[in-house]
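Re: the 151-residue chain
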Amino acid sequence: METERTGEYLIFDEVKIPKDIQFLIVEDEEDILELTKDSLIELGFSGQVTAVKSVESAIELSLQNEYCFDFIISDWNLTDLSGLDLLINLRNDLRYKNTPFLMVTANDNISGMIVANKKGVSDYLVKPWTLEELQMKIADCWSKKLPTLPV
């Protein structure tokens, strides 16, 4: 996948993404959470990355007015609720109706994926993933949010 860094944007293939977007990561495994945060930095993102370990914490943060995340990366299987529960909750909030939502999963449960698609998930990332796969999925999710901008 081709990457270009120009000024305030990252360009992954032909998808133009602001470098300073605000990410919310919901992951209960510390090593995966840190890997995801480090990967976003390695890809060139410079905006705030907020990481929480539970759906309850994610919902609480997302409801606060000062927090409005531009991109959400959530594990499917969490200790309190599921990433699907988070997706459903956030899609009911107008501020998050079109926010890119990348679901990370260790399994490929087709029936669950069908439900998540109907509820508005942007894409899936299957564990274990590579930096290139994460980059590709972020670009895919962002392109669904906004039309591709000319480079």
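The beta strands are 3-6, 9-12, 15-18, 23-26, 49-52, 71-75, 101-105, 123-126.
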